[in-house]
Write a structure and sequence with these properties.
The chain is of the alpha/beta class and 441 residues long. 40% of the residues lie in helices and 12% in strands. The strands form three sheets. It has a seven-stranded mixed beta sheet with strand order 2-8-7-6-5-3-4, sandwiched between helices. A four-stranded antiparallel beta sheet has the order 9-10-13-12. The site of pyridoxal-5'-phosphate has 13 residues, from helix 6 and helix 7.
Length: 441
């Protein structure tokens, strides 16, 4: 397998479509592309928002629907292993993020799981740090102003419920803020590891250590990390993590999310949405709640079996890279793709004053490249989509291109940039119909 340095050099030097095709021929991960349905005429640069459909998902869902549901009916909760699916899929995701079997479970959405872990962590912090009358300032939850909005909304509501305030610090200020002995005490640091707008990667281990030094919990959202970059929750000594099933894990629209709690905390916490499937014995139908041991008590209601089935197929497309170097190899390929994209944009779109918002160092970037244009970025993205190059737009001015390393080829990067150059050179994006806003951008 080529080293990362070689891969990056070759990607940087590719200056023709033929050279890109040669990179694809040498790509040790190239065979994994066949795992996905590829609509003709589409170059899909939005796997960071909704991963592509794996070929086997439709067949597997049909089996579960017609066989397990249609024929097995309610017996399938036992006979087809439906009850264990949240842990079974969780154990597979665990392998991608450095968690151990039994520590991570699939349920609910990322938003809901973040609420659960944050409330649980804050209650734990309050128990260890009882309020004193002389306390000047309310304790805080620290996050970043550029964090994904749902994370901020959830953090705000979970914090307010328990008398905490949410304090937002720019990335460069996080470390000094956590180390400031004169500022309000910090109970939790809530960050998304890979910035959804820019793709910049936070140092999970370093910032977790900074949080711990401040007496705070380190809570991580892995929405743009899981299935995209190598993550090792134990090595980083994180406290809690949540993440998304429908992005790089290819689980399908609205796929359930995942939640992880470090084993040192999991049984010390009480998550706030105690539901019957998190009970130690749901089918005792006891009136009093008694939480299951371990991460299972983070379950609330009945698991969505069809969605979990699709998510399992998606996760397995990523696990298929394990014999080929796993997440390190996937991120290395994504670095080659993003590096090529950036170089080609610089070369072929140089008249159009595009600005790179993503880190220039490929090791500091997740699997995406974000650009800013002085022109109408939304209309440019719409014009590209109409030509089969699907990226997305993030308010207020970000053109975002995701590079899922499993299905994408170097020639796709070449073709996408040529299309972007055409849209900009010809000004086709100026057609008023591209300015019309849709509900989802
Ligand atoms: C995509 C994403 C979410 C999505 O949350 P849902 O509850 O699944 O809608 C949350 N946080 C981040 C950082 C994301 O990128």
């Amino acid at each position: 397998m080529p080293s990362l340095a070689e891969l990056l050099t070759h990607a940087r030097e590719a200056s023709s479509r033929d050279q890109c095709a040669a990179l694809d021929r040498d790509d040790p991960l190239g065979a994994l592309r066949a795992q996905f349905v590829a609509p003709p005429g589409v170059i899909y640069l939005d796997g960071n928002s909704l991963g592509q459909l794996p070929v086997k998902t439709a067949t597997r869902i049909a089996q579960v629907v017609t066989g397990e549901w249609g024929q097995g009916l309610i017996r399938s909760w036992n006979d087809a292993g439906w009850m264990d699916l949240p842990t079974q899929v969780g154990n597979q995701i665990a392998r991608l993020v450095g968690a151990r079997p039994g520590e991570l479970i699939v349920c609910d959405s990322t938003s809901v799981n973040l609420f659960k872990v944050l409330r649980a962590a804050l209650a734990l912090w309050l128990a260890a740090n009882p309020a004193k009358p002389q306390d000047a300032a309310a304790p805080v939850v620290v996050s970043q102003p550029g964090n994904f909005p749902t994370d901020l909304y959830i953090a705000q509501s979970a914090a307010a419920d328990l008398g905490f305030e949410l304090e937002l610090c720019d990335a460069a200020q996080l470390e000094p803020r956590l180390a400031d002995p004169n500022a309000a005490p910090v109970a939790a640091l809530v960050l998304t590891q890979v910035d959804y707008r820019t793709g910049a990667i936070h140092d999970l281990g370093h910032l977790s250590a900074c949080a711990h030094a401040a007496g705070a919990f380190a809570i991580w959202d892995l929405a743009h990390s899981a299935g995209a970059i190598p993550v090792d929750l134990h090595q980083a000594d994180a406290d809690f993590a949540v993440g998304c099933g429908y992005k790089f894990l290819n689980g399908g629209p609205g796929a359930p999310a995942f939640v992880w709690a470090h084993p040192r905390w999991v049984d010390k916490t009480r998550q706030p949405l105690a539901g019957w499937l998190g009970h130690t014995a749901p089918f005792d139908f006891a009136a009093a709640y008694s939480p299951a041991q371990g991460i299972r008590h983070y379950l609330g209601g009945t698991p969505p079996i069809l969605s979990l089935t699709a998510l399992e197929c998606g996760v397995q497309t990523v696990l298929a890279a394990e014999p080929l170097g796993g997440m390190a190899a996937l991120h290395a390929k994504a670095q080659g793709l993003t590096e090529l994209f950036i170089r080609l944009v610089a070369r072929h779109c140089d008249r159009h004053e595009l600005e790179l918002l993503s880190p220039t160092d490929p090791a500091q970037r997740g699997c995406q490249v974000s650009l800013r244009s002085p022109l109408d970025g939304y209309a440019i993205v719409q014009a590209l989509i109409e030509r089969g190059v699907i990226g997305d737009f993030r308010a207020s001015d970000v053109l975002r291109f995701g590079f899922s390393p499993l299905p994408l080829r170097y020639v796709d990067v070449w073709d996408a940039v040529m299309e972007l150059a055409r849209v900009l050179d010809t000004g086709t994006w100026r057609d008023p119909r591209y300015a019309q806003r849709h509900a989802v951008t």
